[in-house]
Amino acid sequence: MKPANEMELSEAIRGANGPLRIVGGGTRAIGPDRAGEVLETGALSGISLYEPGALTIVAGAGTPLAEVEAALDGGGQRLPFEVPDLRGLLGRSGASTIGGVVAANGSGPRRIQAGACRDSLIGVRFVDGAGTIVKNGGRVMKNVTGYDLVKLMAGSHGTLGVLTEVAFKVLPRPEVEATLTRDGVDPAAAVAAMAQALGSPYEVTGAAYFGGQIRLRIEGMIGSVAYRSGALRKLLGAGWDVVEAAQSAILWREIRDVAPFMGQAGAVWRISIKPSDMPQVLAVLSQAQTLCDWGGGLIWALVPDAGDAQAGALRGALAAMGGHATLVRAGAAVYDTTPAFHPEPAALATLSKTLRAKFDPRGILNPGMMG
User: Fold this and answer.
1) Which residues, at least 6 apart from 311, have a Cβ–Cβ distance to it below 8 Å?
2) What is the DSSP letter of 155?
3) Closest C-alpha to 270, from 153, 102, 118, 108
4) Do 144 and 34 lie in a common domain?
């Protein structure tokens, strides 16, 4: 099914007799392919409002991400949260849609400074599992349901409703960027240096650690970036190099898209933790390839695609830390025994079940996606 508009989508969901598998661009789905009739949102496309002076853009959920980014670029602006392109990592093709970005809460390195996708999202329209058209935020400010639907829909992976329109606050594009790098650093020293940089007044917009190298990014006007990068080097001490302009951007695309794992065999974990726990988690994953973002709060790990892909050891260690791990890529045999999404604590699982029952009482929207 590929509804041409919101009303057709509502009718399609209302008339569905079984599970529906929601597909935007098909670039961000996690876990094995699930049963269900495919429902595509690609026809719900187009930018309906772009007001550069108000830093606001509104677009249909099926609008290609590239179209949104091109429009913003023409206005000297950008989405604040630096959307990752994970097609190479996940082995998928197609064109990412802005609705898919919201459904996955896709957020890149700039999250540490600008927040996640959900923090820039100011409005949504969607169709719930009963076929009801719902709108919240943006220009319709009254929340009649009692839920913050804008926040709920971001990261819900299509399990609460099918997005039809999204609205964002955007930010001006900076003039320049520069990255401070330091090589040969162990995990404990790396997390300490990243914490020091992020706690400084120099507005670091990226803090990553890969292959023994720390990367710290500063963005803004030319004079400001020159001053802040120099001041940060003095604060952190000797041993730092500076990479500028296009070469700096290359470094961050590599982190954003988890490029080092592209084309490599293996299962891939996305691990969220407190930054201070980074060294301990890396010790658990001592045989894995790892890439750390968000000052150590996000770890990507490439492990053998066999058994439980180290889920027992990893999730067991995270239980004591309050972190969680999502298996974003694995073979069918691993997924047969290992859930893609981290098992929820009992109280949270009950809340999630209640929400899904509220918005999808028949359980037809991406069933089994998140437990």
Assistant:
1) 325, 327, 338
2) T
3) 108
4) yes
* Interval 201-242: pLDDT, tens: 999 999 999 999 999 999 999 999 999 999 999 999 999 999
Same domain, 21 and 77: yes
Residue 142's pLDDT band, with cuts at 50, 70 and 90, is very low
Over residues 340-363, the mean pLDDT reads: 89
- Cβ neighbours, 10 Å, residue 249: 15
CATH number of the domain bearing residue 21 = 3.30.465.10
pLDDT surpasses 70 at 141: no
Domain that includes residue 70, residue range:
6-172
Q: 91 with 212, same domain?
A: no
Question: Does one domain contain both 235 and 105?
Answer: no
3-state secondary structure of 59: strand
Please indicate, yes or no, whether residues 81 and 10 belong to a single structural domain of this protein.
Answer: yes
Q: Which CATH number goes with the domain that contains 317?
A: 3.30.70
Q: Cα 317 to chain center, whole Å?
A: 23
User: 48 in helix, strand or coil?
Assistant: strand
Inform me whether the pLDDT recorded for 144 exceeds 60: no
Between CA 2 and CA 364 the distance in angstroms is 17
DSSP string, 222-285: HHHHHHHHHHHHHHH-S--EEEEHHHHHHHHHHHHTTGGGTT--SEEEEEE--GGGHHHHHHHT
Q: Is the separation of the CB atoms in 149 and 166 below 8 Å?
A: no
pLDDT in tens, 305-320: 999 999 999 999 999 9
Q: Give 282-332 as a DSSP string.
A: HHHTTTSEEEEEGGGTEEEEEE-SSTTTTHHHHHHHHHHHT-EEEEEE--H
pLDDT beyond 80 at 371: no
Burial zone of 104 (CB within 10 Å; 0-12 exposed, 13-18 middle, 19+ buried): buried
pTM greater than 0.85 = yes
Same domain, 106 and 120: yes
Structure tokens at 301: 């790990």
Q: Is the pLDDT of residue 334 over 60?
A: yes
